[in-house]
């Protein structure tokens, strides 16, 4: 009788071991079976960073499409079904859109790994545009590397190599951007939407923003902006393709200047250097106008 019970116990243990081992193998082989990790991000610049680190082992999807603004984008109903199949979601952090939707997304995808890439970054006035400073992108990319490596430990070496290459690229961009502002004394620029706050902080610049707390400016604020801009010789007003340029045009006319479009949501992160070059050129022109 004891031998029978012992035999049954051993049989049960063997069955449980097979089942448990099978579960772990299924989880560990997710990348091998499906070919890639299904990754979601909120904005286009994030997608470029994930692709640079994940390479051929990731399939990256972007919540907010090209040309749309994350401030007022409405998610289509069918998008939630796609998100239910995601393995990891990299949030920018501090975007109202993410605050509203991330819990709903987790509700339909219990296994989803959500990574806040703003961890370790000092946030200014809840401003989410942390992807517009190479120094902060270096921190965000570390979170991306660590998350991909934790999900797919078997390919950690591949991610590490790509991550190191990206860090070298960001370090070079940081040095090149700093060089752009060498010798410039009037380090102020005028923009409609305050997307460049972190770039300004990291490189000793002053961002003069027309928009007030996400809304069109009032007459008093417009008068103040025009007064400050004139005192600093500023004639170029930067605007983005995701926002109305009416207020920017009004102010540019008062300054006897022009509106230039710069995109705070580049598909290729390397485009940031060209954009910052335009800001530096505007500063040099402002110095000559003083």
UniProtKB/TrEMBL annotation:
Signal peptide: none annotated. Keywords: Coiled coil, Signal, Transport. It comes from Thermosyntropha lipolytica DSM 11003. It comes from the Bacteria. Belongs to the bacterial solute-binding protein 9 family. The keyword Coiled coil applies. InterPro entries: Bact_metal-bind_prot9, ZnuA-like. GO terms for molecular function: metal ion binding. PANTHER family: HIGH-AFFINITY ZINC UPTAKE SYSTEM PROTEIN ZNUA, HIGH-AFFINITY ZINC UPTAKE SYSTEM PROTEIN ZNUA-RELATED. The keyword Kinase does not apply. GO terms for biological process: metal ion transport. Residues 156-183 form a coiled coil. This is Zinc transport system substrate-binding protein.
